[in-house]
Write a structure and sequence with these properties.
11 strands; elongated; alpha/beta; Rossmann fold; Methionyl-tRNA Fmet Formyltransferase, Chain A, domain 2; 2 domains; 288 residues; 4-stranded antiparallel beta sheet; 29% helix
Length: 288
C-alpha cells in the first residue's frame, strides 16, 4: 500500500464530489477539502445557480470537511497552500488554474476530462461530441500542465454511449462509475510517481466554447448537421434552443427527427428534417 495522500477535490455538483471522495477514500487516501466555483469567471459575482449548488454541497459535506468558495484563482492558490496537499483532483472546474498552483500540491494536479484526449481539448468536449454526431464519448484522467488538457495521460476509457435524445440526466450517471474506476487507477499511479503517457499533439482536436452564431439554424446545412445542432442545444436545456426561421415565423427548435414524423417538414441542403417540438421565438436580428 502506498502512503496515503492528502487530496483536495474541485468539481461542479454534489454527486461528483461524492464520486471523487469515495474513490479517494476507498483507495486509502484522505480528502481534506472541497473546492467549488461560485462564478463562471474569477473575480465575478456569484450567480444564482452556483449559489443554489453551493447550498446543496454544504448540506452534503462529510463531517470535518472544508468547503472553499474562492473569489479569485489567486486566493484559491493561497488557501490550498495551507492544506499541505499531496494532490489536487479537478473535474469540470470553471477557472483556469494559475501555473503557481500546479506546483502547490506535492504531486501536482490531475484533471478529469470527458473525452478521449487528445481529442476534444477544451471546455466543451461533450457538446462538440454531440454536435459532430459521435455515437459515444470517453473519460481521460491526465496530469495538468500549463496548457489546456495537454498533460500526460494516467487513465482513459471510451465506450460511453450518447443517446439520440441525450440529456445530462441520462449521461452523467453513465460517466460516474467509469470516472470512479479510472480515478482509482490514476491515484495509484500518482502515488507511485508514474509520469503517465504523453499525448500525441498531431491527433489533437479542439472543443472550445460554442460560437454565438451557431444558435441560429441555417437550413443550407445538411439535415444531419442541423439535427445534431438541435441535439446539442437540447443537452444544454430548453432555454438554450436554437432559433430558426420557418416560413414567415421564428421558432425555438427543441427537437427534430431525420425520419418522417408528426411535425413541421423543412428542406435542408441534402434532405428534409422534421421539427417535432418547438415554441414561438423572436427574430434574433430584431431590435431589443
Amino acid at each position: 500500500m502506498t502512503h496515503p495522500m492528502r487530496v483536495a477535490l474541485a468539481t461542479f455538483a454534489v454527486e461528483e464530489f461524492a464520486v471523487l471522495h469515495a474513490a479517494c477514500f476507498e483507495a486509502g487516501h484522505i480528502p481534506v477539502a472541497y473546492v467549488y466555483c461560485r462564478s463562471m469567471k474569477p473575480n465575478s459575482y456569484t450567480d444564482a445557480h452556483a449559489a443554489a449548488t453551493a447550498g446543496q454541497i454544504v448540506e452534503a459535506l462529510p463531517p470535518g470537511m472544508d468547503l472553499l468558495l474562492p473569489g479569485s484563482s489567486e486566493s484559491l492558490a493561497e488557501a490550498l497552500a495551507g492544506y499541505r496537499l499531496d494532490l489536487l483532483v479537478v473535474y469540470g472546474f470553471n477557472w483556469k488554474l494559475p501555473v503557481s498552483m500546479l506546483g502547490t500540491p506535492r504531486f501536482g494536479v490531475v484533471n478529469i476530462h470527458t473525452s478521449l484526449l487528445p481529442h476534444y481539448r477544451g471546455p466543451a468536449p461533450v457538446l462538440w461530441a454531440i454536435r459532430n454526431g459521435d455515437p459515444e464519448i470517453g473519460v481521460t484522467i491526465h496530469r495538468m500542465d500549463e496548457r489546456f488538457d495537454t498533460g500526460p495521460i494516467l487513465a482513459q476509457r471510451g465506450g460511453i454511449p450518447l443517446d439520440e435524445d441525450v440529456t445530462p440526466q441520462l449521461l452523467w450517471p453513465r460517466i460516474r462509475p467509469v470516472l470512479r474506476d479510472l480515478l482509482t487507477t490514476a491515484l495509484d499511479m500518482v502515488a507511485r510517481q508514474a509520469p503517465g503517457t504523453p499525448q500525441d499533439d498531431s491527433e489533437a482536436s479542439s472543443a472550445g466554447f460554442i460560437e454565438p452564431e451557431f444558435s441560429v439554424v441555417d437550413w443550407s446545412r445538411s439535415a444531419r448537421e442541423v439535427h445534431n445542432q438541435v441535439r446539442m442545444f437540447a443537452f444544454m436545456g430548453r432555454d438554450h434552443a436554437p432559433v430558426a426561421r420557418v416560413g414567415e415565423q421564428w421558432l425555438a427548435v427543441l427537437r427534430t427527427r431525420l425520419e418522417p414524423a408528426d411535425g413541421i417538414r423543412v428542406e435542408c441542403a441534402d434532405a428534409p428534417i422534421w421539427i417535432v417540438e418547438s415554441v414561438p421565438a423572436t427574430d434574433p436580428a430584431a431590435p431589443r
